[in-house]
Amino acid sequence: MERLCVILLLVSKTLMVNAQFNGFNCDANFHSRFPAERDISVYCGVQTITLKINFCPVLFSGYTDTDLALNGRHGDAHCRGFINNNTFPTVVLFSISLSTLEACGNSLVVSTAQGPNAYGNLSLVQIGNIAGYIDTPDPPTVISYLPGLLYKFSCSYPLEYLVNNTQLASSAAAISVKDSNGTFVSTLNLLLYNDSTYVHHLAIPVSGLTLKTRVFAAVKATNLDRRWNVLMDYCYTTPSGNPNDELRYDLFFGCDKDPQTTVFENGKSQMGRFSFEVFRFVKHKNQKMSTVFLHCVTKLCRSDDCPLLLPVRMAA
Ligand SMILES: *[C@@H]1O[C@H](CO)[C@@H](O)[C@H](O)[C@H]1NC(C)=O
Ligand SMILES: *[C@@H]1O[C@H](CO)[C@@H](O)[C@H](O)[C@H]1NC(C)=O
Ligand SMILES: *[C@@H]1O[C@H](CO)[C@@H](O)[C@H](O)[C@H]1NC(C)=O
Ligand SMILES: *[C@@H]1O[C@H](CO)[C@@H](O)[C@H](O)[C@H]1NC(C)=O
Ligand SMILES: *[C@@H]1O[C@H](CO)[C@@H](O)[C@H](O)[C@H]1NC(C)=O
């Protein structure tokens, strides 16, 4: 008799919880709990930041999807998320476009911190950090029996990259709980053109380019939020594809410039432009052709910050 009662109690409790999850992809055994840190994932992309929140513990806590909003903007429908029932568990998705960050109260802070530099080594570099939170509204009462939910997130993007004159493959960003890192390197390309109009790409003949041919080069950002400008710090050449090759010839480094190199535009738009004359590496003297690999250490800066980062003589 006693045992029967216990079973009945258990069954009725399970039914109650299942009713609460009401057809969403939740499992009463796993999700009858309040949210934890693992219930948010952050994807720091090139154009958007995507946040995924496990919806089941939100339901268990007594809230619905419309109770969750970015940075306390509960009155603003476009600062709320979207339910996605196609996953287990059901998630609420928030998508933040990097070009309209401020619309839902997110902000970008550029700071100097330890991070990977252009060569992947840790050093002091500029980092763009976007941070914010998702929470539930405060009830209009003095006390509440529902816990307030708060999910914090951040995305860090290093702002210094090494760009080669080979097309860079697009890179996947890391997925992690709460804090995550992204990169804009896939938006940067080092392109070669045949004249100062920067319209026609340079076609390299099979026999190679004639020495002293003027080559027009550009580090160009594509699909990158308009707030960033491209600033070339250091462009150099190596006889091999290895950007760390000890043998190198510098085209320009801050104010120091090879006499045949001209910098046309730097830090003023999403394209940095310069030209130089074709030369050969003397170590290739026994070869028919000398190969030259071009590399540029490039920073992204906000238009207001760029003049501060430019070498003094150029900014003046
Ligand atoms: C998700 O599933 C729930 C429960 O079946 C349903 O009420 C809701 O409308 C669905 N939402 C979407 C976006 O499909
Ligand atoms: C990067 O770090 C490695 C290992 O410490 C070092 O050998 C290399 O010279 C560094 N490269 C640059 C460009 O600083
Ligand atoms: C982000 O990058 C920094 C610097 O490289 C590293 O210390 C940190 O662990 C990374 N964070 C994540 C979540 O990957
Ligand atoms: C660059 O290429 C275009 C198209 O092939 C050509 O019309 C133009 O004359 C070239 N410019 C130079 C300087 O060779
Ligand atoms: C630059 O190009 C070389 C050879 O193409 C490649 O090995 C290297 O990884 C590239 N560097 C970066 C930072 O993409």
Automatic annotation (TrEMBL):
<dbReference type="InterPro" id="IPR042235">
    <property type="entry name" value="ZP-C_dom"/>
</dbReference>
<feature type="domain" description="ZP">
    <location>
        <begin position="43"/>
        <end position="316"/>
    </location>
</feature>
<keyword id="KW-0472">Membrane</keyword>
<feature type="signal peptide">
    <location>
        <begin position="1"/>
        <end position="19"/>
    </location>
</feature>
<dbReference type="InterPro" id="IPR055355">
    <property type="entry name" value="ZP-C"/>
</dbReference>
<keyword id="KW-1133">Transmembrane helix</keyword>
<dbReference type="Pfam" id="PF00100">
    <property type="entry name" value="Zona_pellucida"/>
</dbReference>
<keyword id="KW-0968">Cytoplasmic vesicle</keyword>
<protein>
    <recommendedName>
        <fullName>Zona pellucida-like domain-containing protein 1</fullName>
    </recommendedName>
</protein>
<keyword id="KW-1015">Disulfide bond</keyword>
<dbReference type="InterPro" id="IPR001507">
    <property type="entry name" value="ZP_dom"/>
</dbReference>
<keyword id="KW-0812">Transmembrane</keyword>
<dbReference type="GO" id="GO:0030659">
    <property type="term" value="C:cytoplasmic vesicle membrane"/>
</dbReference>
<comment type="function">
    <text>Glycoprotein which is a component of the gelatinous extracellular matrix in the cupulae of the vestibular organ.</text>
</comment>
<keyword id="KW-0964">Secreted</keyword>
<keyword id="KW-0272">Extracellular matrix</keyword>
<dbReference type="InterPro" id="IPR055356">
    <property type="entry name" value="ZP-N"/>
</dbReference>
<dbReference type="Pfam" id="PF23344">
    <property type="entry name" value="ZP-N"/>
</dbReference>
<keyword id="KW-0732">Signal</keyword>
